[in-house]
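Q: My hope is that you can spare some time for a protein that puzzles me. Underneath my words sits a plain record pairing an amino acid chain with its backbone structure tokens. Those tokens are not coordinates but codes from a learned vocabulary of shapes. Thank you; the sequence and its tokens follow:
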Amino acid sequence: MFKTGLILALIFSIQMLLGCNTADNSGNNNSVKNSDMSDVTGSNIKDNVEELGTLVKLPLEPEEVTWKEFAPNSSNSEQTGSQNLKKLTAVMRFSNENAKKIVGQVENKQAGESASLGAEPWFPAELIAQSELNGDDTLKGTSYSAADFYQPPFTDGKIIRIENTDFFILELVSK
């Protein structure tokens, strides 16, 4: 009887030690995965309006902004044919009044065209939810020339107003 109790206590102790060790290892693995995930989703995602304003012209100040700058690399060169292309994508939310002003301003240069684009994981939750409601993970909107936003090195691109929102997605590239 004493022997059985000792064996059970030993097995229980080993399981406890292994359980603690496994939890500790999985915690370490999770922290590595989380830091890796931030690199994958882009630790260069920014939300500073002033900093964005140093890279592009902002005719009106957005209420909310999330943006990301993509440096030239081989994957960009494959898609665009130029190794010197830099890209900037900004998601901006304006007040309803300013959203109407922006549309009026860009429509003066070019009529809008129907557009759709895939929602990125770093986009605001509201836009990701809207893309999921569409059933195909895309956002629909109206695309315009982004000439009013150009500032070297970004001298080409478009701005898309997302349907039924005051969100705009600005996509600029350097030439």
